[in-house]
Amino acid sequence: xxxxxxxxxxxxxxxxxxxxxxxxxxxxxxxxxxxxxxxxxxxxxxxxxxxxxxxxxxxxxxxxxxxxxxxxxxxxxxxxxxxxxxxxxxxxxxxxxxxxxxxxxxxxxxxxxxxxxxxxxxxxxxxxxxxxxxxxxxxxxxxxxxxxxxxxxxxxxxxxxxxxxxxxxxxxxxxxxxxxxxxxxxxxxxxxxxxxxxxxxxxxxxxxxxxxxxxxxxxxxxxxxxxxxxxxxxxxxxxxxxxxxxxxxxxxxxxxxxxxxxxxxxxxxxxxxxxxxxxxxxxxxxxxxxxxxxxxxxxxxxxxxxxxxxxxxxxxxxxxxxxxxxxxxxxxxxxxxxxxxxxxxxxxxxxxxxxxxxxxxxxxxxxxxxxxxxxxxxxxxxxxxxxxxxxxxxxxxxxxxxxxxxxxxxxxxxxxxxxxxxxxxxxxxxxxxxxxxxxxxxxxxxxxxxxxxxxxxxxxxxxxxxxxxxxxxxxxxxxxxxxxxxxxxxxxxxxxxxxxxxxxxxxxxxxxxxxxxxxxxxxxxxxxxxxxx
Length: 533
Prior knowledge:
alpha+beta, Alpha-Beta Plaits, 4 domains, 21 helices, 9 strands
Protein backbone atom coordinates (compact mmCIF):
# COMPACT_ATOMS: atom_id res chain seq x y z
CA UNK A 1 0.00 0.00 0.00
CA UNK A 2 1.58 3.26 -1.16
CA UNK A 3 0.78 6.79 -0.09
CA UNK A 4 -0.81 9.16 -2.62
CA UNK A 5 1.69 11.82 -1.48
CA UNK A 6 5.27 11.91 -2.68
CA UNK A 7 8.22 13.83 -1.34
CA UNK A 8 11.46 15.01 -2.89
CA UNK A 9 14.72 13.49 -1.65
CA UNK A 10 15.39 16.66 0.35
CA UNK A 11 11.93 16.51 1.94
CA UNK A 12 12.35 12.82 2.74
CA UNK A 13 15.62 13.66 4.48
CA UNK A 14 13.87 16.40 6.43
CA UNK A 15 10.99 14.13 7.44
CA UNK A 16 13.01 11.00 8.20
CA UNK A 17 13.75 11.76 11.90
CA UNK A 18 10.07 12.38 12.64
CA UNK A 19 8.12 9.63 10.85
CA UNK A 20 8.64 5.89 10.60
CA UNK A 21 8.32 6.01 6.78
CA UNK A 22 7.73 8.53 3.99
CA UNK A 23 6.19 6.17 1.42
CA UNK A 24 3.27 4.32 3.04
CA UNK A 25 -0.08 5.73 4.25
CA UNK A 26 0.32 4.21 7.71
CA UNK A 27 3.14 5.57 9.87
CA UNK A 28 4.05 6.75 13.37
CA UNK A 29 5.37 10.13 14.50
CA UNK A 30 8.75 9.99 16.25
CA UNK A 31 11.18 12.34 18.01
CA UNK A 32 8.70 15.20 18.36
CA UNK A 33 7.63 16.96 21.57
CA UNK A 34 4.13 15.94 22.63
CA UNK A 35 2.75 19.44 22.26
CA UNK A 36 3.88 19.53 18.63
CA UNK A 37 2.17 16.22 17.95
CA UNK A 38 -1.03 17.60 19.44
CA UNK A 39 -0.91 20.81 17.45
CA UNK A 40 -0.11 18.85 14.29
CA UNK A 41 -3.07 16.49 14.73
CA UNK A 42 -5.39 19.42 15.46
CA UNK A 43 -4.45 20.95 12.12
CA UNK A 44 -4.76 17.53 10.48
CA UNK A 45 -8.46 17.31 11.38
CA UNK A 46 -9.24 20.43 9.32
CA UNK A 47 -6.99 20.06 6.33
CA UNK A 48 -7.03 18.17 3.04
CA UNK A 49 -3.28 17.67 3.33
CA UNK A 50 -1.58 14.56 4.65
CA UNK A 51 0.05 14.66 8.05
CA UNK A 52 3.60 14.54 6.68
CA UNK A 53 2.90 17.44 4.33
CA UNK A 54 1.48 19.45 7.23
CA UNK A 55 4.53 18.60 9.31
CA UNK A 56 6.76 19.95 6.55
CA UNK A 57 4.79 23.10 5.73
CA UNK A 58 3.62 24.25 9.12
CA UNK A 59 6.45 23.12 11.36
CA UNK A 60 9.67 22.01 9.73
CA UNK A 61 9.68 24.63 6.95
CA UNK A 62 7.81 27.39 8.77
CA UNK A 63 10.12 30.06 10.22
CA UNK A 64 7.31 31.39 12.41
CA UNK A 65 7.01 28.04 14.15
CA UNK A 66 10.60 28.35 15.29
CA UNK A 67 11.09 24.61 15.27
CA UNK A 68 14.66 23.32 15.00
CA UNK A 69 15.87 19.77 14.86
CA UNK A 70 17.25 19.27 18.38
CA UNK A 71 20.63 17.66 18.78
CA UNK A 72 20.70 17.78 22.59
CA UNK A 73 18.12 17.89 25.37
CA UNK A 74 18.93 21.58 25.85
CA UNK A 75 18.27 22.23 22.14
CA UNK A 76 14.99 20.33 22.44
CA UNK A 77 13.82 22.54 25.32
CA UNK A 78 14.91 25.67 23.46
CA UNK A 79 13.04 24.61 20.33
CA UNK A 80 9.92 23.89 22.34
CA UNK A 81 10.05 27.20 24.21
CA UNK A 82 10.69 29.19 21.04
CA UNK A 83 7.73 27.60 19.28
CA UNK A 84 5.33 27.77 22.23
CA UNK A 85 3.32 30.87 21.27
CA UNK A 86 2.87 29.54 17.74
CA UNK A 87 1.51 26.19 18.95
CA UNK A 88 -0.70 27.87 21.52
CA UNK A 89 -2.33 29.97 18.81
CA UNK A 90 -3.08 26.81 16.81
CA UNK A 91 -4.59 25.07 19.81
CA UNK A 92 -6.58 28.13 20.92
CA UNK A 93 -7.98 28.45 17.41
CA UNK A 94 -9.95 25.24 17.75
CA UNK A 95 -11.57 25.84 21.12
CA UNK A 96 -12.07 22.12 21.63
CA UNK A 97 -11.02 20.33 24.80
CA UNK A 98 -10.41 17.16 22.81
CA UNK A 99 -7.29 18.76 21.31
CA UNK A 100 -5.66 18.08 24.67
CA UNK A 101 -6.08 14.36 24.03
CA UNK A 102 -3.68 14.40 21.09
CA UNK A 103 -0.46 14.49 23.11
CA UNK A 104 0.55 12.69 26.25
CA UNK A 105 3.24 12.03 28.83
CA UNK A 106 4.56 9.36 31.17
CA UNK A 107 4.66 10.81 34.69
CA UNK A 108 6.44 9.09 37.57
CA UNK A 109 5.30 9.97 41.09
CA UNK A 110 7.55 8.50 43.74
CA UNK A 111 7.26 8.63 47.52
CA UNK A 112 3.56 9.48 47.49
CA UNK A 113 1.22 8.20 50.17
CA UNK A 114 -1.28 5.42 49.60
CA UNK A 115 -3.95 7.97 50.55
CA UNK A 116 -2.80 10.30 47.76
CA UNK A 117 -2.81 7.53 45.15
CA UNK A 118 -6.59 7.30 45.34
CA UNK A 119 -6.98 10.93 44.29
CA UNK A 120 -4.37 10.44 41.58
CA UNK A 121 -6.31 7.42 40.27
CA UNK A 122 -9.80 8.91 40.51
CA UNK A 123 -10.03 10.01 36.86
CA UNK A 124 -11.73 7.40 34.70
CA UNK A 125 -10.76 8.50 31.20
CA UNK A 126 -7.50 9.49 29.54
CA UNK A 127 -5.02 8.11 32.05
CA UNK A 128 -3.54 4.72 32.90
CA UNK A 129 -1.99 4.43 36.37
CA UNK A 130 0.22 1.68 37.73
CA UNK A 131 1.13 1.42 41.41
CA UNK A 132 3.71 -0.47 43.42
CA UNK A 133 2.11 -3.66 44.71
CA UNK A 134 1.69 -4.50 48.39
CA UNK A 135 1.65 -8.18 47.37
CA UNK A 136 5.05 -8.54 45.73
CA UNK A 137 7.12 -5.88 47.51
CA UNK A 138 7.99 -5.54 51.19
CA UNK A 139 7.22 -2.18 52.79
CA UNK A 140 9.41 -2.90 55.82
CA UNK A 141 12.56 -1.19 54.53
CA UNK A 142 13.86 1.86 56.34
CA UNK A 143 15.50 4.90 54.76
CA UNK A 144 17.75 7.12 56.87
CA UNK A 145 16.76 5.14 59.94
CA UNK A 146 12.99 5.46 59.58
CA UNK A 147 10.11 3.67 57.92
CA UNK A 148 8.78 5.17 54.71
CA UNK A 149 5.55 7.01 55.47
CA UNK A 150 4.30 10.51 54.70
CA UNK A 151 5.09 13.00 57.44
CA UNK A 152 2.40 15.62 57.13
CA UNK A 153 3.92 19.04 57.83
CA UNK A 154 0.77 20.47 59.41
CA UNK A 155 0.49 17.64 61.92
CA UNK A 156 4.23 17.68 62.66
CA UNK A 157 4.00 21.39 63.48
CA UNK A 158 1.28 20.66 66.06
CA UNK A 159 1.21 19.16 69.55
CA UNK A 160 0.16 15.84 67.95
CA UNK A 161 3.47 15.31 66.12
CA UNK A 162 4.78 12.57 68.41
CA UNK A 163 1.46 10.70 68.42
CA UNK A 164 1.37 10.77 64.62
CA UNK A 165 4.96 9.58 64.22
CA UNK A 166 4.83 6.85 66.84
CA UNK A 167 1.49 5.46 65.60
CA UNK A 168 2.83 5.09 62.06
CA UNK A 169 6.13 3.65 63.23
CA UNK A 170 4.48 1.03 65.44
CA UNK A 171 2.28 -0.10 62.56
CA UNK A 172 5.38 -0.57 60.40
CA UNK A 173 7.32 -2.29 63.20
CA UNK A 174 4.53 -4.80 63.73
CA UNK A 175 4.29 -5.39 59.98
CA UNK A 176 8.05 -5.99 59.74
CA UNK A 177 8.22 -8.23 62.81
CA UNK A 178 5.42 -10.51 61.61
CA UNK A 179 6.71 -11.19 58.10
CA UNK A 180 8.80 -14.24 59.00
CA UNK A 181 6.38 -15.72 61.60
CA UNK A 182 3.58 -15.53 59.02
CA UNK A 183 5.69 -17.24 56.35
CA UNK A 184 6.73 -19.96 58.80
CA UNK A 185 3.08 -20.60 59.64
CA UNK A 186 2.09 -20.78 55.96
CA UNK A 187 4.88 -23.25 55.17
CA UNK A 188 3.69 -25.40 58.06
CA UNK A 189 -0.01 -25.53 57.14
CA UNK A 190 0.47 -25.39 53.36
CA UNK A 191 3.51 -27.54 52.60
CA UNK A 192 4.63 -27.86 48.96
CA UNK A 193 3.57 -30.77 46.81
CA UNK A 194 6.44 -33.09 45.78
CA UNK A 195 6.33 -32.03 42.13
CA UNK A 196 6.02 -28.28 42.71
CA UNK A 197 9.00 -26.06 41.81
CA UNK A 198 10.43 -24.72 45.06
CA UNK A 199 10.93 -21.22 43.67
CA UNK A 200 7.29 -20.96 42.61
CA UNK A 201 6.14 -22.26 46.01
CA UNK A 202 8.28 -19.70 47.88
CA UNK A 203 7.01 -16.83 45.74
CA UNK A 204 3.41 -17.84 46.46
CA UNK A 205 4.19 -18.05 50.20
CA UNK A 206 5.76 -14.59 50.04
CA UNK A 207 2.74 -13.13 48.20
CA UNK A 208 0.28 -14.78 50.60
CA UNK A 209 2.22 -13.46 53.58
CA UNK A 210 2.19 -9.91 52.28
CA UNK A 211 -1.54 -10.24 51.55
CA UNK A 212 -2.22 -11.22 55.15
CA UNK A 213 -0.16 -8.37 56.59
CA UNK A 214 -1.05 -5.51 54.27
CA UNK A 215 -3.89 -4.47 56.58
CA UNK A 216 -1.26 -3.14 58.99
CA UNK A 217 0.08 -0.63 56.49
CA UNK A 218 -1.27 2.88 57.22
CA UNK A 219 -2.66 5.19 54.55
CA UNK A 220 0.51 7.26 55.03
CA UNK A 221 2.62 4.44 53.51
CA UNK A 222 4.85 5.81 50.74
CA UNK A 223 4.60 4.09 47.38
CA UNK A 224 5.55 4.72 43.75
CA UNK A 225 3.23 5.35 40.82
CA UNK A 226 3.57 5.63 37.09
CA UNK A 227 0.86 7.36 35.08
CA UNK A 228 0.50 7.62 31.32
CA UNK A 229 -2.07 10.14 30.24
CA UNK A 230 -3.05 12.62 27.58
CA UNK A 231 -2.90 16.37 28.06
CA UNK A 232 -6.57 16.71 28.91
CA UNK A 233 -6.21 14.07 31.62
CA UNK A 234 -3.23 15.83 33.20
CA UNK A 235 -4.98 19.21 33.14
CA UNK A 236 -7.91 17.67 35.01
CA UNK A 237 -5.56 15.89 37.41
CA UNK A 238 -3.69 19.07 38.32
CA UNK A 239 -6.94 20.96 38.89
CA UNK A 240 -8.34 18.14 41.02
CA UNK A 241 -5.19 18.00 43.15
CA UNK A 242 -5.24 21.76 43.67
CA UNK A 243 -8.84 21.68 44.85
CA UNK A 244 -7.91 19.30 47.68
CA UNK A 245 -7.09 20.47 51.20
CA UNK A 246 -4.26 18.05 52.00
CA UNK A 247 -0.83 19.65 51.76
CA UNK A 248 0.61 16.56 50.10
CA UNK A 249 -1.81 16.87 47.19
CA UNK A 250 -1.09 20.57 46.79
CA UNK A 251 2.64 19.82 46.69
CA UNK A 252 2.13 17.00 44.18
CA UNK A 253 0.22 19.36 41.90
CA UNK A 254 3.08 21.86 41.90
CA UNK A 255 5.73 19.17 41.38
CA UNK A 256 3.80 17.47 38.56
CA UNK A 257 3.09 20.77 36.81
CA UNK A 258 6.79 21.64 36.84
CA UNK A 259 7.64 18.40 35.04
CA UNK A 260 4.67 18.37 32.65
CA UNK A 261 5.51 21.92 31.58
CA UNK A 262 8.56 20.43 29.91
CA UNK A 263 6.52 17.98 27.82
CA UNK A 264 2.91 19.12 27.34
CA UNK A 265 2.90 22.79 28.42
CA UNK A 266 0.11 23.94 26.12
CA UNK A 267 -2.25 21.26 27.35
CA UNK A 268 -2.03 22.08 31.07
CA UNK A 269 -2.13 25.90 30.95
CA UNK A 270 -5.62 26.09 32.40
CA UNK A 271 -4.51 24.26 35.56
CA UNK A 272 -2.26 27.19 36.54
CA UNK A 273 -3.31 28.80 39.81
CA UNK A 274 -3.75 32.17 38.12
CA UNK A 275 -5.62 30.96 35.03
CA UNK A 276 -9.26 32.07 34.83
CA UNK A 277 -10.34 28.47 34.17
CA UNK A 278 -8.82 27.24 37.42
CA UNK A 279 -10.13 30.23 39.37
CA UNK A 280 -13.62 29.46 38.04
CA UNK A 281 -13.30 25.81 39.10
CA UNK A 282 -12.16 26.85 42.58
CA UNK A 283 -15.04 29.27 42.94
CA UNK A 284 -17.53 26.62 41.78
CA UNK A 285 -16.22 24.12 44.34
CA UNK A 286 -16.45 26.63 47.16
CA UNK A 287 -20.00 27.56 46.20
CA UNK A 288 -20.98 23.90 45.95
CA UNK A 289 -19.52 23.18 49.39
CA UNK A 290 -21.38 26.13 50.91
CA UNK A 291 -24.58 24.93 49.24
CA UNK A 292 -24.35 21.45 50.71
CA UNK A 293 -23.37 22.80 54.12
CA UNK A 294 -26.70 24.66 54.13
CA UNK A 295 -28.96 21.99 52.68
CA UNK A 296 -27.60 18.57 53.58
CA UNK A 297 -28.72 17.56 57.09
CA UNK A 298 -25.87 16.97 59.50
CA UNK A 299 -25.99 13.43 60.87
CA UNK A 300 -23.57 11.63 63.12
CA UNK A 301 -21.25 9.16 61.44
CA UNK A 302 -21.87 5.52 62.19
CA UNK A 303 -19.65 4.43 65.06
CA UNK A 304 -20.71 0.81 64.94
CA UNK A 305 -18.15 -1.61 63.48
CA UNK A 306 -19.55 -3.57 60.57
CA UNK A 307 -18.68 -6.72 58.69
CA UNK A 308 -17.82 -6.54 55.02
CA UNK A 309 -21.02 -6.42 52.99
CA UNK A 310 -22.38 -5.93 49.48
CA UNK A 311 -25.93 -4.59 49.14
CA UNK A 312 -27.65 -4.32 45.77
CA UNK A 313 -29.51 -1.02 46.04
CA UNK A 314 -31.14 -0.79 42.63
CA UNK A 315 -31.46 -2.47 39.27
CA UNK A 316 -33.80 -2.36 36.29
CA UNK A 317 -36.36 -5.20 36.43
CA UNK A 318 -36.73 -4.83 32.64
CA UNK A 319 -32.97 -5.11 32.04
CA UNK A 320 -33.25 -8.50 30.33
CA UNK A 321 -35.64 -7.07 27.76
CA UNK A 322 -33.42 -4.03 27.20
CA UNK A 323 -30.28 -6.13 26.75
CA UNK A 324 -31.92 -8.48 24.25
CA UNK A 325 -33.57 -5.58 22.41
CA UNK A 326 -30.17 -3.90 22.07
CA UNK A 327 -28.72 -7.17 20.81
CA UNK A 328 -31.46 -7.51 18.19
CA UNK A 329 -31.12 -3.84 17.22
CA UNK A 330 -27.39 -4.17 16.66
CA UNK A 331 -27.80 -7.21 14.43
CA UNK A 332 -30.81 -6.11 12.37
CA UNK A 333 -32.37 -3.16 10.56
CA UNK A 334 -35.13 -2.80 13.19
CA UNK A 335 -35.83 0.37 15.15
CA UNK A 336 -35.17 -0.01 18.87
CA UNK A 337 -38.91 0.04 19.59
CA UNK A 338 -39.42 -2.77 17.06
CA UNK A 339 -36.54 -4.73 18.57
CA UNK A 340 -38.04 -4.37 22.04
CA UNK A 341 -41.46 -5.45 20.76
CA UNK A 342 -39.84 -8.49 19.18
CA UNK A 343 -38.22 -9.47 22.48
CA UNK A 344 -41.45 -8.93 24.43
CA UNK A 345 -43.14 -11.39 22.09
CA UNK A 346 -40.66 -14.15 22.97
CA UNK A 347 -41.48 -16.74 25.60
CA UNK A 348 -39.44 -16.93 28.82
CA UNK A 349 -38.07 -20.25 27.63
CA UNK A 350 -36.90 -18.73 24.35
CA UNK A 351 -35.18 -15.83 26.12
CA UNK A 352 -33.43 -18.15 28.52
CA UNK A 353 -32.30 -20.38 25.65
CA UNK A 354 -30.98 -17.39 23.70
CA UNK A 355 -29.00 -16.00 26.65
CA UNK A 356 -27.58 -19.40 27.56
CA UNK A 357 -26.36 -20.07 24.03
CA UNK A 358 -24.90 -16.56 23.81
CA UNK A 359 -22.97 -17.14 27.05
CA UNK A 360 -21.68 -20.48 25.76
CA UNK A 361 -19.94 -18.74 22.87
CA UNK A 362 -17.39 -17.44 25.37
CA UNK A 363 -14.36 -19.73 25.79
CA UNK A 364 -12.58 -17.58 28.41
CA UNK A 365 -13.06 -14.32 30.30
CA UNK A 366 -11.32 -12.23 27.64
CA UNK A 367 -14.13 -13.05 25.21
CA UNK A 368 -16.18 -9.92 25.86
CA UNK A 369 -19.82 -9.76 24.92
CA UNK A 370 -21.07 -6.64 23.11
CA UNK A 371 -22.32 -3.30 24.31
CA UNK A 372 -25.87 -4.56 24.53
CA UNK A 373 -24.94 -5.53 28.11
CA UNK A 374 -24.47 -1.85 28.94
CA UNK A 375 -28.26 -1.50 28.93
CA UNK A 376 -28.35 -3.26 32.33
CA UNK A 377 -27.00 -1.36 35.34
CA UNK A 378 -26.69 -2.04 39.06
CA UNK A 379 -26.00 0.12 42.12
CA UNK A 380 -24.20 -1.43 45.09
CA UNK A 381 -23.46 -0.10 48.57
CA UNK A 382 -20.27 -1.78 49.75
CA UNK A 383 -18.43 -2.02 53.05
CA UNK A 384 -14.96 -3.51 52.76
CA UNK A 385 -11.45 -3.02 54.05
CA UNK A 386 -9.51 -0.11 52.56
CA UNK A 387 -7.03 -2.49 50.96
CA UNK A 388 -9.83 -4.13 48.95
CA UNK A 389 -11.22 -0.75 47.96
CA UNK A 390 -7.82 0.20 46.57
CA UNK A 391 -7.84 -2.85 44.31
CA UNK A 392 -11.42 -2.45 43.10
CA UNK A 393 -11.04 1.33 42.70
CA UNK A 394 -8.82 0.90 39.65
CA UNK A 395 -11.70 -0.23 37.41
CA UNK A 396 -12.54 2.73 35.22
CA UNK A 397 -15.88 2.36 33.42
CA UNK A 398 -18.17 2.76 36.41
CA UNK A 399 -19.31 5.41 38.88
CA UNK A 400 -18.11 5.18 42.46
CA UNK A 401 -18.10 7.49 45.44
CA UNK A 402 -16.19 6.78 48.64
CA UNK A 403 -16.67 8.21 52.08
CA UNK A 404 -13.86 9.63 54.17
CA UNK A 405 -11.46 7.03 55.56
CA UNK A 406 -12.04 6.57 59.30
CA UNK A 407 -11.74 3.83 61.92
CA UNK A 408 -15.43 3.87 62.85
CA UNK A 409 -16.58 0.92 60.75
CA UNK A 410 -14.12 -1.40 62.46
CA UNK A 411 -11.37 -3.56 61.01
CA UNK A 412 -10.78 -7.08 59.76
CA UNK A 413 -8.15 -9.56 60.96
CA UNK A 414 -7.47 -12.42 58.52
CA UNK A 415 -8.37 -15.82 59.96
CA UNK A 416 -4.92 -17.12 59.08
CA UNK A 417 -3.31 -14.57 61.44
CA UNK A 418 -5.64 -15.70 64.21
CA UNK A 419 -4.85 -19.36 63.54
CA UNK A 420 -1.14 -18.53 63.54
CA UNK A 421 -1.42 -17.12 67.07
CA UNK A 422 -0.65 -13.58 65.90
CA UNK A 423 -4.00 -11.99 66.66
CA UNK A 424 -2.89 -10.16 69.81
CA UNK A 425 -0.12 -7.94 68.34
CA UNK A 426 -2.26 -7.20 65.30
CA UNK A 427 -5.27 -6.08 67.32
CA UNK A 428 -3.09 -4.12 69.72
CA UNK A 429 -1.55 -1.95 67.00
CA UNK A 430 -4.84 -1.54 65.11
CA UNK A 431 -6.54 -0.34 68.30
CA UNK A 432 -3.68 2.10 68.89
CA UNK A 433 -4.25 3.51 65.39
CA UNK A 434 -7.96 3.93 66.23
CA UNK A 435 -7.10 5.92 69.37
CA UNK A 436 -4.67 8.11 67.45
CA UNK A 437 -7.23 8.76 64.73
CA UNK A 438 -9.82 9.91 67.27
CA UNK A 439 -7.33 12.39 68.77
CA UNK A 440 -6.07 13.71 65.43
CA UNK A 441 -9.49 14.04 63.82
CA UNK A 442 -10.57 16.84 66.12
CA UNK A 443 -7.96 19.25 64.77
CA UNK A 444 -7.03 17.56 61.49
CA UNK A 445 -10.09 15.76 60.02
CA UNK A 446 -8.41 15.16 56.64
CA UNK A 447 -4.85 14.50 57.84
CA UNK A 448 -6.12 12.01 60.44
CA UNK A 449 -6.74 9.58 57.57
CA UNK A 450 -2.99 9.01 57.28
CA UNK A 451 -2.86 6.91 60.47
CA UNK A 452 -5.73 4.62 59.42
CA UNK A 453 -4.40 1.16 58.47
CA UNK A 454 -5.72 -0.68 55.43
CA UNK A 455 -7.43 -3.26 57.64
CA UNK A 456 -10.10 -0.70 58.55
CA UNK A 457 -13.41 -0.70 56.72
CA UNK A 458 -14.55 1.91 54.21
CA UNK A 459 -17.99 2.46 52.73
CA UNK A 460 -18.41 3.23 49.05
CA UNK A 461 -21.12 3.07 46.39
CA UNK A 462 -20.68 1.62 42.95
CA UNK A 463 -22.88 2.10 39.89
CA UNK A 464 -21.88 -0.24 37.07
CA UNK A 465 -23.31 -1.69 33.88
CA UNK A 466 -23.44 -5.43 33.27
CA UNK A 467 -20.62 -5.42 30.71
CA UNK A 468 -18.21 -3.71 33.12
CA UNK A 469 -19.45 -5.85 36.02
CA UNK A 470 -18.68 -8.98 34.02
CA UNK A 471 -15.09 -7.85 33.53
CA UNK A 472 -14.70 -6.83 37.18
CA UNK A 473 -16.07 -9.96 38.83
CA UNK A 474 -14.42 -12.41 36.42
CA UNK A 475 -11.04 -10.70 36.85
CA UNK A 476 -11.27 -10.16 40.59
CA UNK A 477 -12.41 -13.72 41.41
CA UNK A 478 -9.47 -15.43 39.73
CA UNK A 479 -7.56 -17.74 42.13
CA UNK A 480 -4.57 -15.39 42.45
CA UNK A 481 -6.72 -12.49 43.71
CA UNK A 482 -6.60 -11.26 47.32
CA UNK A 483 -9.14 -13.17 49.42
CA UNK A 484 -10.92 -10.01 50.65
CA UNK A 485 -11.66 -8.45 47.30
CA UNK A 486 -12.39 -11.89 45.81
CA UNK A 487 -15.19 -12.20 48.37
CA UNK A 488 -16.58 -8.76 47.51
CA UNK A 489 -16.55 -9.54 43.79
CA UNK A 490 -18.23 -12.90 44.43
CA UNK A 491 -20.93 -11.15 46.46
CA UNK A 492 -21.61 -8.67 43.65
CA UNK A 493 -22.15 -11.60 41.31
CA UNK A 494 -24.38 -13.37 43.84
CA UNK A 495 -26.57 -10.26 44.35
CA UNK A 496 -27.19 -10.02 40.60
CA UNK A 497 -27.75 -13.76 40.32
CA UNK A 498 -30.44 -13.55 43.00
CA UNK A 499 -32.53 -11.03 41.05
CA UNK A 500 -31.61 -11.71 37.41
CA UNK A 501 -30.17 -15.22 37.10
CA UNK A 502 -30.48 -15.36 33.33
CA UNK A 503 -28.33 -12.26 32.89
CA UNK A 504 -25.95 -13.43 35.60
CA UNK A 505 -25.26 -16.63 33.66
CA UNK A 506 -23.49 -14.50 31.03
CA UNK A 507 -20.72 -14.06 33.63
CA UNK A 508 -19.74 -17.68 33.19
CA UNK A 509 -16.10 -17.33 34.32
CA UNK A 510 -16.80 -16.10 37.85
CA UNK A 511 -14.82 -18.27 40.28
CA UNK A 512 -16.68 -18.93 43.54
CA UNK A 513 -14.05 -21.20 45.12
CA UNK A 514 -11.52 -20.44 47.88
CA UNK A 515 -7.76 -20.92 47.44
CA UNK A 516 -5.30 -20.97 50.38
CA UNK A 517 -2.34 -20.24 48.04
CA UNK A 518 -4.07 -18.48 45.18
CA UNK A 519 -0.85 -17.33 43.53
CA UNK A 520 0.65 -20.82 43.41
CA UNK A 521 -0.76 -21.96 40.04
CA UNK A 522 0.36 -18.75 38.35
CA UNK A 523 3.82 -18.98 39.93
CA UNK A 524 4.22 -22.62 38.89
CA UNK A 525 3.28 -21.73 35.31
CA UNK A 526 5.82 -18.89 35.33
CA UNK A 527 8.54 -21.14 36.75
CA UNK A 528 7.92 -23.83 34.15
CA UNK A 529 8.19 -21.21 31.41
CA UNK A 530 11.55 -20.12 32.84
CA UNK A 531 12.82 -23.68 32.94
CA UNK A 532 11.77 -24.39 29.36
CA UNK A 533 13.26 -21.22 27.88
